[in-house]
Amino acid sequence: MTAPVSPLAAAGDCVAIPSITPLAAVRRSAASPSVVGTVLRHELRSVLRNRGVLVFGVGTLLLTDIVVRLTGSAPRAMSTLLNLVLLVVPLVTMMAGIISWHASREFNELLLAQPVKRTALFSALYLALVLPLAGAFSLGMLLPLAWHRVVDPASAMLVVTTVGSGLALTFIFGGLALLIGIRIEDRLRGVMTGLMAWLLLTVGYDAVVLIVATTLADYPLERPMLGFMLLNPVDLARSVIVLQSDAAALMGYTGAVMSRFLGSTLGTIAAAGGLLAWIVVPVALARRSFDRRDF
């Protein structure tokens, strides 16, 4: 009497049984740069398919081209485009970040079910948000200046400072957008919170500074205002830009105080350090919230 033959053994000649990858190997491959690059490429394609980045880049390019044609010089163009850098860039980054986070939440949950490190996934999500916006802004600002040939050695530092401040605000508000999106599950509440944060940092801050300066006009407020300025990245960016130009009227109260006490060079270094801190802190808080969130 012959022993019974297993169905798998009988079919072994015609069916290839896939080998099972060890768990350690899966973890190593999930933590490898190739997986991070795959997630980054997917998120970049998702952002670019939205066409919002393209509209933002083309709009920046057209506006810069019109301003350069009307002003005829780089310093005048940078002064005119100051509101684009300080108001439009933070708003676009904030809204794009919150909306894209909620749009890809199911995909992120699917990835988290795989052996992928949360830190690597968060880095890919953050870079996929800020890099397209930063590239669109930079090209939109620099291309018209290049083909009109209005940048000379005297205005080169102002152009670099203006574009660099816009890039810094992109990275700052990208981190704030992810922080808000991760902590607030409802999309509408997240968008409204982002709008309120943008209004507070762009419009409300100046109103608070004016009220404090008017109410406490009899007290020496110059030095406390230097610390108060660090609470607002938009004001820091404005101070960095204006310190490189002659438009003293655009400095605002805190910018004028910084120019008076620190001077142009030291004031620029201090404001740039504040911008760097604003880039690091929101991203660190967002990553911590992402690591602790129970999806």
Q: Secondary-structure map with pairings?
A:
Blueprint: H1 7-10, H2 23-30, H3 33-49, H4 52-71, H5 74-80, H6 82-103, H7 105-112, H8 118-148, H9 153-183, H10 187-215, H11 222-229, H12 233-243, H13 252-292
Structure notes:
The protein is an all-alpha fold and 295 residues long. It has one domain (33-292). It is 80% helix and 0% strand. It contains 13 helices and no strands. It has helices at 7-10, 23-30, 33-49, 52-71, 74-80, 82-103, 105-112, 118-148, 153-183, 187-215, 222-229, 233-243, 252-292. α4 (52-71) runs parallel beside α8, α6 packs antiparallel against α12 and α8 packs antiparallel against α13. The longest helix has 41 residues, at 252-292. The radius of gyration is 25 Å and the shape is globular. Residues 1-32 have low confidence and may be disordered.
